[in-house]
Amino acid sequence: MRKIKVSGSGGFAQPVEGIVDQAKAANGPVVMRKCTPEHMPSTEWGPDCHVQWGGRGIVLSDTKQAYSTAYFEAFPDTGSGFIRGEGTTVSEAEEKALSKRRKELACSSHAWSRKGYSNGLCFCRNCGCSQSVMPAIIKLGDWKRPASPFCISDLLTPIDEWERKYRRQRNEWCDHDRDEILRMRVAGIDLPLEPSEKSEARHDAFMAAALNWARGPRAMAYVEAVEHQQKDKSVISRMFSTFDIKELKRQIAEIQAETDVTPSPCD
Description:
Layout (H helix, E strand, L loop, with lengths): L16 H9 L4 E2 L18 E10 L7 E9 L7 E5 L2 H17 L5 E2 L7 E4 L5 E3 L16 H7 L5 H10 L7 H9 L13 H15 L3 H11 L6 H26 L7
Parallel strand pairs: 1-2
Antiparallel strand pairs: 2-3, 3-4, 5-6, 6-7
């Protein structure tokens, strides 16, 4: 089930420095974004965990009716990489997320099940936690799948100095698997294959390659061809794909418009 979150401030921005500093001083978790409403996360998460929350999250699903909820999301450095709690308030949502974390840490023997996932993500049948513990199942012909519009769009999104500082702290740079890199290369984006380890320099090289591709004549035609292939997907998958494609087309149009501008001659 894919989820989107809509915060009361109209989106995520830079963190609320007061809460960030207070949480850090109390040896609490790292607050990732500007989150509303104001909330002080529990120190039980520890200083190596990153958190974010919102008072109004909209959840959409192919199988369930859409609903709005307060939510709290944690990204521990050990065990489950992602834990989400929902509730009528952020405090209630955080307590539910903490309950999941405690249950995971108390589990003495994880029993893993794929539960239909093929990317390596598994769920413990005893405590319910999730971790990537099994190898991904490679589907025959998967190499023919087009490059992800979301991944390309991410490479075309500028990174400001605050974001760079945050990413340096976590070494959080683009970490696409080799298959996705090859798919983007097939699309015409000349991504370097080496070095294979994620780094700031590698991320910048990827962004430069994507920007160069977006300036060329093949970019929009490729995205429109991918858009045409979305008709056989489920309603929810198609909705999110449509959003990603529209955003990518907007970025390409803006980049090409900037490229086409001829500067006026100097006097």
